[in-house]
Amino acid sequence: AQKVTQAQTEISVVEKEDVTLDCVYETRDTTYYLFWYKQPPSGELVFLIRRNSFDEQNEISGRYSWNFQKSTSSFNFTITASQVVDSAVYFCALRFGETGTASKLTFGTGTRLQVTL
Amino acid sequence: NAGVTQTPKFRVLKTGQSMTLLCAQDMNHEYMYWYRQDPGMGLRLIHYSVGEGTTAKGEVPDGYNVSRLKKQNFLLGLESAAPSQTSVYFCASSYGTGNSPLHFGNGTRLTVT
What we know:
The complex is a heterodimer of chains A (117) and B (113). Helix content of chain A is 0%, strand content 53%. Chain A contains no helices and 12 strands. Chain A has strands at 3-5, 10-14, 19-21, 24-26, 33-39, 46-52, 59-61, 64-69, 74-79, 88-96, 104-107, 111-116. In chain A, the strands form 3 sheets. In chain A, strands 2, 5, 6, 10, 11 and 12 form a 6-stranded mixed β-sheet that branches. In chain A, strands 3-9-8-7 form a 4-stranded antiparallel β-sheet, with no helix packed on it. In chain A, strands 1-4 form a two-stranded antiparallel sheet. Chain A is globular and about 45 Å long. Chain A starts with a strand and ends with a strand. Chain B has 113 residues and is mostly beta strands. Chain B contains no helices and 11 strands. In chain B, a hairpin with a 5-residue loop joins strand 7 and strand 8. The interface between A and B is medium-sized, with 25 and 30 residues.
């Protein structure tokens, strides 16, 4: 069975602080894909990053970075020098389904990040 | 380029009423999906489609039906709405398989009283 756990329900930080959002996943597949999505207060879902199970390189995009560790089944997301505009709910997701089928995702329950001045 | 468009944005139904949610995408994506989002539960897959004329069940299909008569449209129907179907519904589409990211619409907030 596929499962994604985001244990942090809500995090509050002051602007310019660094913050890490945790994501732990469970899967029996050897090939799988992980995603992060952002849902700002306006409600839409914005794709941030994807990572396949064969690529454990960490990735940095501006103030965002992702740490993928197969040994601990984790795919954590760090925001450096947080800003008020980062306030949102962040979802981690795991693709399930056989190779060659639709990209169905199992989502975690989300982490609400509140960044204040 | 509109991406994925959902209509309506909001709807209130009474128990037992029916309605159809419309999803349209202009990216020529083969795959389309319907998810529901409930507090504390993340998003759960209701139904999906791998191409025009095809549909398949997701994790929580009961009480819903779907149709994909045209490649660009994916309809979600509620034949007899129940309060448990109060939720925010998201449509998504993707190019293909594997690591293709899903592109989401802005959601439809449905309340069933």
